[in-house]
Amino acid sequence: MPRLFRTGSSLLRACVAARARRSWSVGGTAALLALGDEALSRLRLPSRVCLCSVAMKNLPYFCSGEVVRGFGRGSKELGIRTANFSEEVVDSFPSDLSTGIYYGWGCIGTGDVHKVVLSIGWNPYYKNVKKSVETHIIHTFNEDFYGEVLSIIIVGYIRPEQNFDSLDALIAAIQHDIEEAKNLLDLPEHQKFKDDNFFHRGCVNSMTNGH
Predict the structure, then answer these.
(1) What is residue 182's predicted lDDT score, i.e. its pLDDT?
(2) In this protein, which residues make up the domain named Riboflavin kinase (predicted)?
(3) Which of the residues 21, 50, 52, 195 has an alpha carbon 20 to 30 A from that of 27?
(4) So what's the pLDDT on residue 61?
């Protein structure tokens, strides 16, 4: 199964961008909306900075792998289509990469590069027993792409995983995440990755570091 991995560091730029956007929100307004004002008032600045640091230290992260069938609830229950990586690819992610919601760029095969938002973890609402990486490509596709190769560059972190009281609350949070990702990816430090050579390489049969 073709896949590529590379890790780097954009911690300082990401944390500064997060702070500039809204009060050390660890990624922006989606985290603030998800936590609520009361919860935020109990958080201390060092804790938020630490959370951002842990999440961002492996970024940008480059990954390519085959799209496999997931739980089938993205489009059916949530109305938000996602592409899933295989367990093998998920297990290859850095063990210290924080679970949560991330954003970046992605493309199917040799197609166009689009903005993406993705969930890494166990999806507390659904109580998954296996860790998953589910990517929502912010673009409308007319066909399924199971078996195709999805290449992504993860460039930023929005918020940690959390549970929700209802399906509607989960959907609302995901929609906020999507809007937050779209806005953050317009920043120059993230926009540059859209044209990265990673998306224009041929497939390889082994894991590598770098381009």
Answers:
(1) 98
(2) 56-186
(3) 195
(4) 96
Our count of domains for the chain comes to 1
> In degrees to the nearest 10, what's the CA dihedral of 19, 24, 27, 30?
-120
Chain segment 112-155, per-residue pLDDT in tens = 999 999 999 987 776 777 899 999 999 998 888 899 999 999 99
Which sequence positions are flagged as catalytic? 134
- If we measure between CA atoms, which residue out of 186, 185, 169 comes closest to residue 33? 169
Task: Retrieve residue 16's tokens.
Answer: 């500064």
Rounded to whole angstroms, the Cα distance separating 119 from 109 reads 21
Dihedral angle, C-alpha 79, 73, 69, 119, nearest 10 °:
80
- Report DSSP letters for 28-95, one per residue: SHHHHHHH-HHHHHT--HHHHHHHHHHHHTT-SEEEEEEEE---S-TTTTSS---EEE-HHHHHTS-T
Name the residue range of residue 80's domain.
Answer: 62-197
**Phi/psi at 40 (5° precision):** -65, -35
Cα(6)–Cα(62) distance, rounded to whole angstroms?
5
DSSP string, 154-169: EEEEEE-----SSHHH
CA quadruple 84, 170, 131, 35: dihedral positive or negative? positive
User: DSSP secondary-structure letter at 127?
Assistant: T
Residue type (1 letter), 190:
H
At residue 145, what is the residue type?
Answer: F
CATH number at residue 184: 2.40.30.30
**Residue 190 counted as domain residue:** yes
- Euclidean distance between CA atoms 114 and 108, whole angstroms: 9
